[in-house]
Amino acid sequence: MKILVVAATRAELAECFQNFGLAEGNFIQTPHFDILITGVGMTATAFALGQHLSASAAYKLVINLGIAGCYDHNIPLGSLVNITIDEFSELGAEDKDEFLTIDAMGFGKSRYFARDIPAGLGLPEVNGITINKVHGNKQSIDSIIKRLNPVTESMEGAAVFYSCEQLDIPCIQIRSISNYVEERNREAWKIGLAIKNLNNWAIKFLTYD
Ligand SMILES: O=C(O)c1cccc(C(=O)CC[C@H]2O[C@@H](n3cnc4c(=O)[nH]cnc43)[C@H](O)[C@@H]2O)c1
């Protein structure tokens, strides 16, 4: 069985495409792994991945790769992390100053997990949140730290975990830190470094798997 690599944008896997000589397009097949480019955000990701997994042969592992924001300033930009717990942090209801999760409302669950993590990844395991609106305001950042204390933030991770849980497929999420979650400061982002480190890791993992 093959691995399925899932990323929001082709740019995040640029060196993988170059290294393996891969074709254009949003779905690429090789003998050992396939790549699915979903588009940015949880809705695009859940649709593309659900559609693909429902129609395809079984995969031994789904790997969500991408860049991410980080709440922990002790983790250097460009570091890779293994996100093992990911949460739809906006899914619920405001109750005056409190937040009711979808779990508390009795409509489902907001927290999802990596499944069957391969041994020896050697990356720090952290908890993340998945959001529609990137945090860039001190008040909302303080509030989410107080409520969930996340280490990372992305726009897709929990949607990949959710889709794989629905279909009982092993799944991991490896992200490279491109920026700190802070008052919006786009000049401080190190997207190039994060993508380079992510691709170096992915090329090794996909070559020696
Ligand atoms: O210009 C912006 O404000 C902006 C905000 C988030 C992401 C981008 C991108 O260009 C990359 C898309 C990709 O990156 C992930 N990502 C990276 N940093 C963060 C973050 O701080 N919060 C949430 N998502 C982040 C995300 O998964 C996107 O798919 C530009």
Automatic annotation (TrEMBL):
Keywords of this entry: Hydrolase, Menaquinone biosynthesis
GO molecular function, one term: methylthioadenosine nucleosidase activity
Reactions it catalyzes: futalosine + H2O = dehypoxanthine futalosine + hypoxanthine
Superkingdom of the organism of origin: Bacteria
GO terms, biological process: L-methionine salvage from S-adenosylmethionine; menaquinone biosynthetic process; nucleoside metabolic process
EC id: 3.2.2.26
UniProt pathway annotation: Quinol/quinone metabolism; menaquinone biosynthesis
GO cellular-component term (any): cytosol
Keyword presence, Hydrolase: yes
Entry keyword Transferase: no
Transmembrane segments: none
Function: Catalyzes the hydrolysis of futalosine (FL) to dehypoxanthine futalosine (DHFL) and hypoxanthine, a step in the biosynthesis of menaquinone (MK, vitamin K2).
NCBIfam families: fut_nucase (TIGR03664)
Family according to the record: Belongs to the PNP/UDP phosphorylase family. Futalosine hydrolase subfamily.
PANTHER family per record: 5'-METHYLTHIOADENOSINE/S-ADENOSYLHOMOCYSTEINE NUCLEOSIDASE, FUTALOSINE HYDROLASE
Name of protein: Futalosine hydrolase
Organism: Pedobacter lusitanus
Gene coding for it: mqnB
